[in-house]
Write a structure and sequence with these properties.
alpha/beta; about 20% strand; three-stranded mixed sheet; globular; Spore Coat Polysaccharide Biosynthesis Protein SpsA, Chain A; about 190 residues
């Protein structure tokens, strides 16, 4: 089975929030972990992800293209990351249907706007994550997850047929970090 999660942590410990989601699964289940500011734009996203899993059961982690991402490998060349029109991004997503079932292996760390991982794989990398990411809050946990996948010799695959809208501080700028601070009443 595939389960979809948007982990949230009230103490900003994203690793703990993801672990809590993973604890709900059986070892052969897959989890789709998404950032809270992402959105699918294609109605058959679940079928597309299942198709990729069926094609690459050995993969350690899947990710996809996004409208905004720090890493160019996860952006589609020519797509304007500053365009705020959802219709524009829907058209981009529609264009990825030409790549149904296609994916490429990535040999580097990724951004975690969308991560697809099997629970048994998560259990293999959790000891590594507890050493390297337990002190991290939100930013950097996804990088540590992808590094751990590579460290245990598993592959990361970029699904070329999935594109998500990722807000990723569009109005505030990539360097904005106030969202990582606790909310206070005025």
């Amino acid at each position: 089975m595939i389960y979809f999660f948007t982990p949230y942590s009230f103490n900003f410990k994203l690793l703990d929030a993801i672990s809590g989601c993973m604890e709900l699964l059986h070892p052969d289940d897959w989890a789709v972990i998404m950032d809270g500011d992402t959105m699918f734009l294609q109605p058959d996203f679940g079928h597309q992800i299942q198709h990729q899993i069926d094609l690459h059961q050995e993969a350690g982690l899947f990710t996809c293209f996004a409208s905004r991402c720090h890493y160019s490998i996860q952006r589609i060349i020519g797509v304007d990351p500053f365009n705020d029109s959802i219709l524009y991004h829907k058209e981009v997503a529609n264009g990825t249907s030409a790549f149904i079932g296609e994916s490429v292996e990535i040999h580097r760390k990724i951004a975690g706007h969308l991560m697809v991982i099997r629970k048994s794989t998560w259990e293999r990398i959790l000891p590594i994550l507890l050493k390297k990411a337990s002190g991290k809050q939100i930013l950097g946990v996804d990088t540590q997850i992808s590094k751990a996948i590579l460290e245990i010799g598993m592959e990361i695959r970029l699904m070329k047929d999935i594109y998500v809208l990722h807000y990723c501080r569009l109005a505030e700028g990539f360097d904005y970090t106030k969202h990582l601070e606790p909310c206070t009443k005025q």
